Structure formats: structure tokens, C-alpha cells
Amino acid sequence: MTRYPDLNTSPRILLGPGPSMVHPRVLRAMAHPLVGHLDPQFITLMNEVQDLLRYAFRTKNPLTIPVSGTGSAGMEAAVCNFVEPGDSVLIGVNGYFGERLCDIAGRYGATVRRVERPWGQVFDPAEIDAALKQHPAKVVALVHAETSTGARQPLEGIADIVHRHGGLLIADCVTSLGGVPLEIDNWDIDIAYSGTQKCLSAPPGLAPLTVGERARDVLRRRKTKVANWYLDLTMIETYWGSNRTYHHTAPISMNFALREALRLVEEEGLEQRWERHARNARELWDGLEALGLKLVVPAAHRLPSLTTVMVPDGVDEAAIRRRLLDDYNVEIAGGLGAFKGKAWRIGLMGYSSSRENILVLVGALERLLGRR
Ligand SMILES: *Cc1c(COP(=O)(O)O)cnc(C)c1O
Predict the structure, then answer these.
(1) E strand or H helix at 26
(2) Residue 33: which residues within 8 A CB-CB, separation 6 or more?
(3) How far is CA 152 from CA 21, 141, 305, in A?
(4) Which residue's CA is the nearest one to ligand 1's atom 12?
(5) Ligand 1 centroid from CA 196, angstroms
(6) Considering the entire predicted model, what is its pTM?
(7) Tens of pLDDT along 289-331?
(8) Which is nearest to 308 in space by CA: 289, 335, 281, 282?
(9) Is any atom of ligand 1 closer than 6 Å to the C-beta of 143?
(10) pLDDT digits (tens, 9 = 90+) for 23-52
(11) From the CB of residue 8, how many other CB atoms can be counted at a distance below 10 Å?
């Protein structure tokens, strides 16, 4: 006898900044019986996951792996492996996740310099160039998809500038991988990380990471040990590389989930998936504007995977979100930082990005805001 009932949470329509809804095939894969993490069958699966991740990242980088942990573990791995105490790091801060990158880099002893833009805006390459002319940096980090604002940072051409100044470019692709055009090799990005629970639509728990040759060189030439044991790529790469040496136990079921989620990406086709995200986002934007709502980010830099919309004057934004959840089973999020209390954040990521979900949300908002 137990005092605790069976799990009975309501099935939600997840339209927040993550997690997104998980495809039934991914849930089924997670229920698959475990194998050991050094079982030859699991080793085959690791190779498949790596191949599929290369497909999704559009890269040939051999060091392309799912880091154990959520997107933030990918973020920390991207920083701690390439930064040593006293290194100069330049970070673009135009939202919450740029701030987090500064916090992480500072904790590893970096001298952090910031280029800043108001929340919702993006950087142009000339600003990065000017900042690097003033102070060269070993590492530059930018957020491709700022989930706190809904802005898409153009990355094309930026790596060339960073390389000309002798640095490495890190891109936070947590809310872009699998939903927004991203070209690791064509754009020459040195290090990129993501998370499983956004546009890939698996549960939170793994952080896809890809590291190019230039960055691996920097890793090999470190003078100090990586300050984080768990995320030390010099050890992790021997497990995901040809040696398969034990470092920590890979989260088996999460790798089952990620493999299935990536198989779904490949079946749909990466470009078709980008196009679906773009098409559905336009439908959402039209629907919100038809309700008289104002979108925060100008169309040119709007992310298809995350939309920020202003809360109309006099509306209690938290009360509306609560009613969406209680009466319609729909989750959206409030604003962070500069947008706290002022904006809603609506995610259309992966399996959540569908016309039927948009119709439910826009219809519900129409009623709750008294537009009908
Ligand atoms: C969600 C997110 C993260 C952090 O990922 P977690 O899975 O929450 O740890 C980092 N960067 C961006 C841009 C994100 O949207």
C-alpha cells in the first residue's frame, strides 16, 4: 500500500520556452529495456546518435556528442574546456542567456568583456569586429536563438571576424538546433551546443555539442586541467571516440530518446523541418496580430521557435497564463528580466509546432482577452 496515487498530471500542450512536447515514438523508445553503457549494441547506438547529430548540426566534426545534462551542461562544457584562468572572453549580451554565459565564464576565471544590446535586438558583425580590435579575445560567445527575447542572431560571417582576431566562436544553439537554419561547417562555428527539449522534442537530459578542429587544438594545448571533472572533454572524448573508455555512465534511456527524436528529424528532412517551423510561426504571428497584440521583435530577426508578444495594458499576464493552463491545458511563459510582467513567450518547437496547437492557443487567447 502506498499513500501516493499513480502519476496523473494532465496532458499539456507545451507552448513555452521548453520543454516542448515529446513525440509518442520518443516516449516509446525511452520505455525500451536497458542495455549496459559498454554493450556492443549501445556502442552501435552511440555511433548512430553521433551521425544523426552531425546531420542536424550540418557538420563533419568528429567530436559531436550528446553531453550528459540539460542545455546548461552543454553551455558549461562549451566554456570550461576552452577557457583557462586569465583568458579573455567576449560575450554578446542581449538577453538572459548571454548573462548566464558571462556568469559561467567568470566562474572559470575568465576576464569577461561584454558587448551589449537592448533585449530583443541583435548584434551586427561590425560591432564584434570593433570590440575585438579594442581587446582581442580567445573566445567569443553569442546566443543564436535568445529564448528570453525571441531574437535570432545572424551568425553568418561572424566566425571569420573572430578567427581573424585569433579567437574561437561559441554559439548557443539550444533553441535553434532542429528548428531554425543552422550551418556549423558553412558558417565555420568552432563550438556549438544545444538541448534535447527544445526543437528536437525529446525530454530534457542531454546537450548535443559539436567541436571543430580549431577548438580541439586549443583544448590539446591547455596549460591547466579542465576545471570541471564531469564535463572534461579530454576524458569524455575517449568514451565517445574509438576507445570507449568508461568516464561516467551514459544516460541510456535518454540516448534511446535522442536517437528516436533525431530519426524523426531525418525522416522529416532538416530543411522541411525548418520550413515547417517558419510556416507555423507566420501563422502564429498573424493570429496574434489579428487579436491586436504587438510582437516584440521586428520581423527580420524574429525566431520561428520562440515568439515574444507584449501583454496589453491593464491585463494581468500571470492570471491569463493560469487560465490557459487550467481551462485549456496550454502552457506558455511569462517574460524574463527586462520583459518580466510585460511580455509572454510562446514556443513553437519541434513536435509542438503544429497548426492545431496554434489554433487552440489563439482561440483561447481571443476568449480570455475578451476579443470575442
Ligand atoms: C533553455 C536554454 C538554455 C539552458 O538549457 P537547460 O536545458 O534549461 O539547461 C541555454 N540557452 C538557451 C538559449 C536556452 O533557451
Answers:
(1) helix 24-30
(2) none
(3) 22, 14, 10
(4) 174
(5) 10
(6) 0.97
(7) 999 999 999 999 999 999 999 999 999 999 999 999 999 999 9
(8) 335
(9) yes
(10) 999 999 999 999 999 999 999 999 999 999
(11) 5
- C-alpha–C-alpha distance, residues 324 and 330, integer Å: 5
Q: Which atom of ligand 1 is nearest to the CA of 175?
A: 15
Give, in degrees to the nearest 5, the angle at Cα 201 between 198 and 202: 105
CA distance 190 to 236: 18
Specify the residue for cell string 576524458: 235
What count of other Cβ atoms lies within 10 Å of the Cβ of residue 228? 16
204 CB under 6 A from ligand 1?
yes
pLDDT (0 to 100) of residue 1: 78
Ligand 1 contacts CB of residue 71 (under 6 A):
yes
Q: Which ligand 1 atom sits closest to the C-alpha of 18?
A: 1
CA dist., res. 98 & res. 172, Å (int): 9
In the chain, the domains with their CATH numbers are 13-18+270-368 (3.90.1150.10), 24-266 (3.40.640.10)
Q: Does residue 195's CB lie within 6 angstroms of at least one atom of ligand 1?
A: yes
DSSP code at position 365: H
Residues with Cβ within 8 Å of residue 34, at least 6 apart in sequence: 252, 253
Q: Is the CB of 18 under 6 A from ligand 1?
A: yes
- Which residue is associated with the grid cell 497584440? 293
CA distance 136 to 162: 9
Nearest CA-CA partner of 89 in 74, 104, 70, 67: 104
